[in-house]
Amino acid sequence: MLSYRKLAMRVLGRPLHTGDSGSPRPASQRAAAFVLTAALLTGAAFPAFADTYFIEDGDIVISAGTEAGTNKVEQGGSLKSENDKGTIITNRNEGTASSNTVTIEAEDHKVEVTLDNVNIETGSGSALTSKGDVTLTLKGDNHLTGGISGNGYGGSGIASTGSLTISGGETDSLTAQGGSGENGGDGISSKDLTISGGTVTATGGNSTGIVGSGGSGIHSDGYLTISGNATITNATGGSSTDSYAGDGIHSGGKLTISGGTIGTAQGGTGKNGGDGIYSIDDLTIEGGKIEQATGGNSTDATGGDGIHGDNKLTISGGTIGTAQGGIATADYKSGGSGIYCGDALTISGGTIGTAKGGNANNGNGGSGIYSKGKLFISQSAKINNATGGSSIHGGNGIFGGTTMEIAGTIKEAFGGDSTGKGIGGHGIYSKKNLTISDSAAITSAKGGDSTDGIGGSGIRSDAELIISQSDPSQSATSQGATIGTAKGGDGKASGGYGIRSDGDLKIEGGTIGSLTTDDNSKQIPDPTTGALGGNAAEGENGGHGIYSKGQLFISGSADIINAKGGDGKTSGGDGIRSDKEFNISGGKIEQATGGNSTDGTGGYGIHSGSMLTISDSANITNATGG
Questions:
Q1: Rounded distance, CA 36 to CA 12, Å?
Q2: Sign of CA dihedral 435, 438, 441, 445
Q3: Which of 106, 149, 241, 250 is the most buried (most CB within 10 A)?
Q4: pLDDT above 50 for 5
């Protein structure tokens, strides 16, 4: 009969050492044997040891063990362990997918499971299903593929109705694929979801029905957090024939991106294009890197947005390489926006490389950056390029639905071109008050051209526009806002305006335009910069360089280096124009030039539709008519 000690060694899978080999057992073996022997002698519960379960041996069901931190494991209908610690699931043959599934029922407990080179492709339903608080740790290369459904829901790679955390190292990966069906399955779906590590590729299943939707690559019904060293190589939404396509990354609650890298987030193609990244609640980007977020194309409605927040959207850090709106291929629809916010958009830090609106067929081009509510671009923010899409009406480079304040750096803001008898998009456009404060630096804002209509404005406000308003955060040495070029788009009918305000316009400081050097090494205004009206060589009116529909005030340290009206057939645009009272109480106007006219009247250098007041402290070097 074996002794308890020898029995313990057999249970542990160790040799009995019945003979004298001359070499002692490893200390780890002797310690484990001692613990197990003591348990046998005293009748105590067996200690928990990690075990590995092969998915080929049957469906696996995991729940919380009777001891804290352990799992109860059942496989193929048989109990395998009451208290398994560090549960590992793997495949015997990694290259051959198993149709068996994993179910984790954490309920009110926390369950942790390691996926070690698992490969599951189920015929129906989801490859891995979980309830409660579950953590999946990735090891090696894992593949989870949901099943296909003919007239129902396609299965998900992972379907969780609780809280799911996915973690792993840089070389550990997960590929999750949703199955196709009337409604496509998600690559990864959870109530609450955190991805804090590992490399993830997730693809939503396609919708094969008439009214179904494509699945999302990554989907949460509640909050979604992407953090740490997580790498999402690709998250792609499934396509849909006659309904909504899936989103690349979709959050039904708050979405926070605080770290990691998102390589590609791609919305699917459908009647409504899916969004690259979508949040129904607040969306916060405070770190990490988004290399590419692209909205899906639309076959009969609106193109998807690259990044879409239904509620507040805050960008406070990190890098966005490209955010691209989807294309609307049907007539009279709209392209998606590069970045879209349904409430207040705050860009307080980080860098946006390119935000591009999608094109549309005989409709409206999408905006590069679109905010339905207030838009604030703070001093630490940097936008390299924001461009509207092209269509009958071009999209705007940057659009604010209420008030807008710019205090940061914008290198390029370009309106999309109008491809018919419409209006080119505006480079920067606010529906209400627009403030360009002391620290703002705008290199180039250009309105889109129009082949048969009116060019867009470089910078436009439908209400009051203030340039270089005092910024309390700036020191007394602030040089004021700088606007290198604000140019109206060219139009067959009329040129757009360089800077336009439909309310009062106040230029209290800052610089508009730049200097260059002539052949005699003398500094002169650079004619290619400043506030430039668009041309209308075949149409009526050239655009004005600077225009106010209300009163216009130039004061303080304002320096308008160059303002020029565009050329037109009927009339040239004015260099600087106010339809109402015009007051120049300070600052400098180095060059204001009216545009030329081929068949009518040239534009004025400086023009007021009412009273013009020029104080002694004002400095006007050159004002010339066209």
A1: 9
A2: positive
A3: 250
A4: no
